[in-house]
Amino acid sequence: MVETRPNLIDGQWLAGAQSAANINPSDTEDTIGHYATATRDDVEAAVSAACAAADDWARSGIQARHDILRAASDEIMARREEIGRLLSREEGKTLAEGIGETVRAAQIFNFFAGETLRLAGERLDSVRPGVDVEISREPIGVVGIITPWNFPIAIPAWKIAPAICYGNPVVFKPAELVPGCAWVVVDILHRAGMPAGTLNLVNGPGSVVGQAMLDDPRINAITFTGSQATGERVAQASVRHMRKFQLEMGGKNPLVVLDDADIDVAVDCAVQGAFFSTGQRCTASSRLVVSEGIHSRFVEACASRIRDLLVGDALDSRTQIGPVVDETQLQQDLDYVEIGRREGATLRIGGERLKRDKNGFYMQPALFTDTRNDMRINTEEVFGPVASVIRVRNYEEALSVANDTPFGLSSGICTQSLKLATHFKRNAQAGMVMVNLPTAGVDYHVPFGGTKGSSYGPREQGRYAAEFHTTVKTAYTSA
Ligand code: NAD
After folding, report:
1. By the 8 A CB rule, do 407 and 456 touch?
2. 476: which of 27, 243, 332, 450 lies 20 to 30 Å off by Cα?
3. Regarding the domain delimited by 4-249+445-478, which CATH topology (the fold level of the hierarchy) does it fall under?
């Protein structure tokens, strides 16, 4: 008998009328657990609890909030092997990646513990003699948090930690496919002393639970990470209620490889950026924009690395690429391989479903060559282990192809030329630019986010998180 993990509403763990199974994508026979699904009424109760808790929470004081964040960080770090294993078991990234992401979550909680002690305003002279001006930051109010499945602990951490830091109560809805890590984080924070109503967990489908959050005008701000299609819904509902919102969505990130690149660095960046975490990263390098002088050597070396990648059970320590997250996503990846073929691209290697001892969603990473930037495989986000090479004549064409996309999350270049790297940093249309580094893989103390169709609203992470999680007050005093 598998235990059902409840939702947390107003400080109470509530079982709910229904539950959903959490299935291991490396082995569909393995049910990790059952998680209660919330109803619209549950969401309403959670929002009511958050509203009731908001004033006291805003006045709770920085020491109390610091201590909760610090305790959460310490516990996550101490339990990193166990939580990392749960993460890999429910999402399918390798154990090393699962533990790495868990450590990242602990670091994020620690960072925001520190930030609570650095909350500062400004005092300025007024243009009117005898008047003082003070600028301070105040909590934004009830924050709705909606997260995707591909970073089951890091994304919840980088949304929940600043909400707590700046004194906002939270209603949190994780992705249906990964309720496990979300539950653990909420349990840790609850035991660390979050007062009733300040942290509510409502699991369940986006169409019910997420939609109920969007429809509730009492949620003052929504921070969302996920697909563009859902992001648009969040935006429209938020505008209707005149609430603040923040969207982090897809990417079609280019990695430019120039003739003068260190070939080993370039191949490492491409393989790691395109295929690690099974290519299921918003920052994945799905377009490899390669200049003609290095093209053949680069393609040859990438194909050889891909051939050697060990695709298998996420929990097997030898595995380098875990399974795709579920059957629907795997089918989407395979469909895009077919679309690429029909568009006339050459499938250089991979792209087929793999059989393993256990029944899981395994796929050989796919590399296309002879692709044009206007093909669907280069304009639409696949969100799987599929990358294409686009051959260009020179740097100017590479930059133009790199920027020719509706997305703008991360953009990378491999070159030894300081001049071209500098030009690329200044002219790449992306929120994050990488020089001789993979497009995926970022720090936690600096802003994260994109331009164009990838992001909307203030940046996440680092000190910039305050822009979303607080509102600014300007006070004038005549002495
Ligand atoms: P998704 O949009 O399907 O789901 C994201 C979340 O929205 C889930 O919790 C889902 O239940 C919820 N949701 C779905 N319908 C909803 C509705 N009607 N109302 C409210 N909530 C609803 O995305 P996904 O498949 O979970 O994640 C993959 C996507 O996330 C990719 O596009 C990827 O690029 C993106 N992503 C972006 C970033 C970033 O920071 N830019 C990071 C990770 C993932």
Report:
1. no
2. 243
3. Aldehyde Dehydrogenase; Chain A, domain 1 (3.40.605)
pLDDT tens-digit series, residues 381-417: 999 999 999 999 999 999 999 999 999 999 999 999 9
Question: 328 CB under 6 A from ligand 1?
Answer: no
Q: Which residues contact 371 (CB under 8 A, 6 or more apart)?
A: 340, 343, 345, 377, 378, 388, 389, 390
Contact partners, residue 264, CB within 8 Å, separation at least 6: none
- Check if 149 has its Cβ closer than 6 Å to any atom of ligand 1: yes
pTM over 0.90: yes
Nearest residue (by CA) to ligand 1, atom 11, is 206
- As a whole number, the mean pLDDT across the chain is 97
Beta carbon of 207 within 6 Å of any ligand 1 atom: yes
* Closest approach atom of ligand 1 to CA 231: 2
H helix intervals, 59-126: 62-78, 80-91, 95-116
Q: Which CATH architecture has domain 253-435?
A: 3-Layer(aba) Sandwich (3.40)
Is residue 349 helix, strand or coil?
A: strand
Q: Is the C-beta atom of 251 inside 6 A of ligand 1?
A: yes
Mean pLDDT by 10 residues, the chain (479 residues): 88 94 98 97 98 98 98 99 98 98 98 97 95 97 98 98 98 98 98 98 98 98 98 98 97 98 98 98 98 98 98 98 98 98 98 97 98 98 98 98 98 98 98 98 97 98 98 95
